[in-house]
Amino acid sequence: MSVLTILVVLIVAGVILYLINRYIPMDGTIKSILNIVIVILIIVWLLKEFGIWSSLSSIKV
Prior knowledge:
Layout: H1 3-23, H2 28-49, H3 52-57
Helix pairs in contact: 1-2
C-alpha cells in the first residue's frame, strides 16, 4: 500500500472521528473510550501494513 493511501486513510479516519466527537452528543467517558478504541485499531492496522505485526506476533516471551 502506498504512503499516499495510508495518509488518505488516516485523514479520513481523523475527520470521521472529529465529526463523531463534535456532532453526536455522548457522555465524555463514552467519547474517551471510542477515541481510544479507534486509535488502537489504527495503530494495529498501521503495524500490519508495515509488516511489524507479524514480527511482533512471532516473539515468544
